Amino acid sequence: MELRIGLVGFGTVGTGFAELLLEKQGALRERYGLDLRVVGITDLVKGSVYDERGLDLARLLEVSRRESTILSYPGAVKFEEFGSLDLVREDGVDVVVEATPTNLETGEPGYTHIREALSSGKHVVTTNKGPIALKYKELRELAARKGVFLRFEGTVMSGTPCISMASECLRGAEVKRIRGIINGTTNFILTEMEKGIPYEEALRRAQEFGIAEPDPTADVEGWDAVAKVMILANVFMGHQLSVSEVEREGITDLRPEELRAAARGGAKVKLVAEVRKEGGTVLASVKPRKVPSSDPLAHVDGVLNALIFSTDTVGDVLIMGVGAGPRATAQAILSDLLWIYAYTSGSPGKAPKALFP
Ligand code: HSE
Hints:
Blueprint: E1 2-8, H1 12-32, E2 35-43, E3 47-50, H2 57-67, H3 84-88, E4 95-98, H4 110-119, E5 123-126, H5 129-146, E6 150-151, H6 163-169, E7 175-181, H7 184-194, H8 199-208, H9 217-220, H10 223-237, E8 246-248, H11 256-264, E9 267-278, E10 281-292, E11 304-311, E12 316-322, H12 326-345
The structure holds L-homoserine.
The site of L-homoserine has 7 residues, from helix 7.
């Protein structure tokens, strides 16, 4: 069986996905008889290409690395000639992988890409936080009406499974609170600052290691974690939060002395994200907090992320792992694609295809 992929966005995440797919394609064919084939790519800056026979990912990656566009790949054209909406409406696409940057004000352009893809009967896998934070209910209902899947594992904790893990394995439980560290950039910076390194220098190191974006505002001011908290509230509490309802404070005002003072008392300062049910409503916050060493979050350092799901049936469940990076995010996309394959390739009414390693 083949799944024909239309990839929207060929930046860090899209490129990382192409690299991972290139590495795994052979094993997927051998193990599952699955041909995951990218038939189209569109990128506002790098250009677009569509070929229903499938694209040569090695060549595309090479061209993109060398020239910073894909325009010299055979058949490639400027974005203006074949844009993202052309690609998501193509009959030759089964699944749209949406990997454009997050916009927490409008959800665009991801929102329109996803809406149009679902409307034209395509499954969607996205890593874009904006549309899932702002328009989850509408998009989920549209997917259900169209009989297609909308998957977004990579939006929270990148490739560390938390959305699927908790929604599939905690079925029937009531999630009362979710608390954790869900931004790798700030956690890396705070871990450096604990060693006495000033904020500016810690940020510079994060950028040098490719963890922080050239413009780190979304991470260090807490907006990225706000988007993730909104996604968690949507998925696990059925509650749409607005951006302004999430109490937010970034890490830019913290000084190494504060972190070292906390350390002397056996504590750490972490950017803690929390969403909880309280008195019939849902409250959420993202802010630096002093965390005692008895708290598992005190031991989550560097680019690691962790989430603690507090439930009515099994108490607290901790999920921890890498929370950022192109390869880890690509893993989330791959996992979502294989989930779609498993659920669409079996016989109707029968158990989904078992994909053992
Ligand atoms: N910039 C994010 C982080 C990764 O540092 O955690 C993407 O969600």
